[in-house]
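YM 10:42: Threonine/serine exporter sequence, as discussed on the call
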Amino acid sequence: MSIKMITLAFVGSIFPVILFNIDRRKIIFAGIGGALGWIVYSLVLSKTTSEVIASFFGALAVNAYSELMARIKKTPASMFYVPGIFPLVPGITAYSTVTYLVQKDFSSAQSTGILMLGIAGAIGFGIMLSSAFFGFISKIYKNYIRSVR
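YM 10:58: structure's back
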């Protein structure tokens, strides 16, 4: 894991903030989310060598951070996890899949396509699981506050 890659993940998370016209005061926080996701992705990838598992944990970290920042900044979590997830998106894998299809190398296209779908599914599942967990904790907290009053 290098500082250069973490910096690129940070910058790669800032540009979608500009592209999607998200509030500029949240630009640094979105970048931190992308960098955090890349750090978790890199650590898990070095331990497991599975891009799918690493993408899942990276997305889980990005969304957990986004849910926390959403509560702190009183804004929707999507303002943080949409740009933060960009460094984890399997763009080169999708590009390779299409390239193999154009070259009529169907076995390579199949393997990279399955990997791409696995990574995309892992990212989606990581976001969903983290959102469900925070929703569950939020509901428990609201019920606790209501019962104390």
